[in-house]
């Protein structure tokens, strides 16, 4: 048995807390069963956004004609793009591994960590198989993995999840995607830009369930101009014969009383590659939590209090495995809170009030705070205003399409902001800052000087115009 002050299971954002422990002079054990750096680095944000930027470049060339510039794409080195991205990611993971192996403060244990009791973890199935580790403070940061829905025939067909999709060396001729969230939308955009026919099947009325309805609807309409979109459908059966995969999808009514609708609008889609991107499940089931006092909810996510303590004394949790927001910036935010709470003098509750998200597809989407349907469901009084990119000088220069939608309460407090259009992920950031560090009211944005004629003017104008109570149609 080896004794440590601090032990973390999972080397994604959990590593940030491990580094704080090490800086405080604690002995630190890191248990990791996969490549170092977690999902974001190895099979999530980083490779996906590196790949997607190539799609942005290609799209820019293809749009050049709209600016009277005759540009043609002569050749695309798709395999080179994928190889370069994956090599970069592998090198980064290996550099983290070497850093931990050579650190005097950290001890890296490679293999799957499983609890023996609240403060003991054994390592199995890896280089350090058989190690038994004990620590007073343990952090569970073991993340999530792709969910595989129970579709008839799914075990008999070849399919990829986002993990393998990021490594495909040629774009499929016809990619069929089951799932309508941001990972599905981004990967569809990536392969579609490089020439794949894309069909996407999503249960909800629109793609991007995380977005405000109006934004999601606009995104879905524009996505449908490029690809085949079957929203309001659920995949019920898959089969494969001689390299062709076939997906049957039934109409689906989303909501509490929802389910498969028995009418004649079912569809059958065939393609040469099937991507399952239908959400993520917690990795808590790999940890033998039954041996501990740690509790999970009915979906398998680890339960914590507002300080991110689990029900077992001295055991903390963060990131995807907690299931609050399955986003890297959330895991990083939770890591800062956990580090303060473990190593600081006072306990600080986690603050999720201004959690942004972004979808790096075309068009780009981003948002923060409540959506209009959230506010309606809460029965809250609110006012809304929208401003279009095309109505600003920079948006006009860019021949941009899209809008910024703002939701405020009747005293002008910012409740939400939702954007569809170029650079949405950058534009939303000033609203996050206003909600977090400013007064959190429309004045923060309206009265800050915005560079003219730069794109953030579209945000400022959305906050400056005449607000309409309770919403209106566009
Ligand atoms: C395709 C894709 C694109 C994404 N894009 C974005 C994006 O653009 N922006 C964004 O904010 N988020 C994005 N995400 C989400 C983001 O990757 C995750 O929210 C983030 O990585 C979660 O961090 P974490 O530290 O909680 O878990 P992880 O990074 O998943 O780390 C958990 C680690 O624990 C290890 N592990 C699991 N079980 C055990 C065990 N029993 N023993 C030992 N080790 C174990 C895993 O191998 C993993 O390395 C994306 C995800 C995917 C899949």
Automatic annotation (TrEMBL):
Transmembrane segments: none
Domain Pyridine nucleotide-disulphide oxidoreductase dimerisation stretches: 355-462
Domain (FAD/NAD(P)-binding) ranges: 5-334
Cofactor: FAD
Keyword Oxidoreductase: yes
Signal peptide segment: none
A GO term, aspect molecular function: dihydrolipoyl dehydrogenase (NADH) activity
PANTHER family, per the entry: DIHYDROLIPOYL DEHYDROGENASE (PTHR22912:SF217), DISULFIDE OXIDOREDUCTASE (PTHR22912)
Family assignment from sequence similarity: Belongs to the class-I pyridine nucleotide-disulfide oxidoreductase family.
Protein's name according to its UniProt entry: Dihydrolipoyl dehydrogenase
Organism encoding this protein: Haloplanus rallus
